[in-house]
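debug: dumping io for the single-chain case to check the tokenizer round-trip. Nothing else runs in this session.
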Amino acid sequence: QIVLSATGATNPVFLDNIYFMSSTAPTDAPTAPTADAANVVSIFSDAYTDLTGTTWNPNWSQTTVVADTTIAGNAVKRYSSFNYSGIEPAATINGSATTHFTLDYWTSDATALLVKFRDYGANGTYDGGDDVETEISNTPTTGSWNTLSIAIADFVAAGLTTSSNIGQIVLSATGATNPVFLDNIY
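debug: decoded output
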């Protein structure tokens, strides 16, 4: 129940635009990661040296719009109309030499964040012949920066038979009517 009152008003009081609001974008930057740079293959982060030649949001008929933006002096990726989006490194990533895939995220309303790896198989090229892919879904926390860290072993347990030539990373969100912000992807 909301009660509004005006003391001493002899003329009408007009009210407009009365609503509850929650933030749909972060105002602070995520905490900088602390993993040893020697053990990191960075795709996007101010804290590490990123891979060069990475293609963001390749044209796969998705509605997602990815934009670079700055929040509290920190570069982040802003995903609007986020149904799915790809990341294609210039060269495949040897995921078997790493232990986790990590990213920082901020969402006001997504109900799931999904990460899919597509490994190009023994020949290391996208040809559909020996490629394999696996997706893992995660329930996000909303309204603050959080870290999603998925063990490479979890992808293997979910059916990724090889992780030596990861050529595509597909990110998607369920229920995200507002932009999703990502940072520190490694």
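debug: round-trip ok. Strands lie at 55-56, 65-71, 74-80, 84-88, 100-106, 112-119, 132-138, 146-151, 166-174, 180-183.
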